[in-house]
Amino acid sequence: MPTPTSSDELFMRRALDLARLGTGHTRPNPLVGCVITHQGRIIGEGWHRQYGGPHAEVNAVAAVTDSQLLPQSRVYVTLEPCSHFGKTPPCADLLIEKQVGEVVICNLDPNPLVAGRGIQKLRDAGIQVETGVLEAEGRALNRRFFTFQEQQRPYVVLKWAETADGYLAGPYFQPVAISGELARVAVHQWRTEEHAILVGTRTALHDNPRLNAREWPGPNPIRLVIDKNLSLPPTHHLFDGSQPTVVFTYRERASQPNLTYVTLSEAEDLFPQILHHLYQQGVQSVLVEGGPTVLNSLLKDGLWDEVRVIRSPRRLGGGVAAPRIGLTGLREQLTLGPDEVFIYQR
């Protein structure tokens, strides 16, 4: 495989930037961007904007004003062009039809429906194909998609806010406003970026959360709540029917519109069952905003991919302790008003 040039990386980085514009709108499909160049100049670009809508390659080709340039063009795409009919026709077929000159790919598609077939189609048609340009950056961008495809479970993000002295809540789980306004807005943005959001019984009972993204534009996540014995009051916000909600329980109860009850086995471990069910339902990622029992269980079992800790300068002097498990792999540190945000990656 030829060594990528600086211009290859430049145009692929632009394609990755375009792909990010689809965040929250393409799931369960991956984020994909595409840039088409001719003699080192961009002549068309696009990204996958919406699940069920045209793919990045289709939008990029449509943006080219002079289609006669396509046979001499170089196409940069962040994920292997699809080779099968899904919601839309195969993008590999489109590139072949347009007789593009070369295709440069960031990541191969791990989806068994594609998995190298798109590349083979292009090569069989005489199109030169290069792969692996900014591969690590592409995997990081689509880490939810790759985790779902390769590990057969959703990508799991654990999030909590803690005081400077290490508490999540006041005594007896009394709710306390720990993080500041900027951090709260950031959390609502995170909610739009994940497919679902999970809390345990105590958090649902004491906080009565809505678990929506009312402070940031974007889609609301699917609400997930663990209620083993169906003890939560039906008057709580989680049962208001405003967005799809799933209750994981050991009891039987009939589902209602926008409210699904999933009965789990008491003889099996709880969280593997939950993650397996979500995988079967095509849920690609989960933001966990639970209390210490849920968070510590997932941490102990290694069922997490990312941890986001919001640390406030506020002190409580007592209350419900935040998880104390040592974390390594700090990926990013942010300052949001008075709060510090620490993001860890497995």
From TrEMBL:
Pathway: Cofactor biosynthesis; riboflavin biosynthesis; 5-amino-6-(D-ribitylamino)uracil from GTP: step 2/4; Cofactor biosynthesis; riboflavin biosynthesis; 5-amino-6-(D-ribitylamino)uracil from GTP: step 3/4
Family classification: In the C-terminal section; belongs to the HTP reductase family. In the N-terminal section; belongs to the cytidine and deoxycytidylate deaminase family.
Lineage: Bacteria, Pseudomonadati, Bacteroidota, Cytophagia, Cytophagales
Secretion signal, residue range per the UniProt entry: none
GO molecular function: 5-amino-6-(5-phosphoribosylamino)uracil reductase activity; diaminohydroxyphosphoribosylaminopyrimidine deaminase activity
Origin: domain of life: Bacteria
Name this polypeptide is given: Riboflavin biosynthesis protein RibD
Sequence ranges assigned to domain CMP/dCMP-type deaminase in this UniProt record: 6-130
EC number of this enzyme: 3.5.4.26, 1.1.1.193
Names of required cofactors: Zn(2+)
Physiological role: Converts 2,5-diamino-6-(ribosylamino)-4(3h)-pyrimidinone 5'-phosphate into 5-amino-6-(ribosylamino)-2,4(1h,3h)-pyrimidinedione 5'-phosphate.
Cofactor annotation remark: Binds 1 zinc ion.
Keywords attached to this entry: Hydrolase, Metal-binding, Multifunctional enzyme, NADP, Oxidoreductase, Riboflavin biosynthesis, Zinc
Coiled-coil zones: none
Pfam families linked: dCMP_cyt_deam_1, RibD_C
Record's catalysed reaction(s): 5-amino-6-(5-phospho-D-ribitylamino)uracil + NADP(+) = 5-amino-6-(5-phospho-D-ribosylamino)uracil + NADPH + H(+); 2,5-diamino-6-hydroxy-4-(5-phosphoribosylamino)-pyrimidine + H2O + H(+) = 5-amino-6-(5-phospho-D-ribosylamino)uracil + NH4(+)
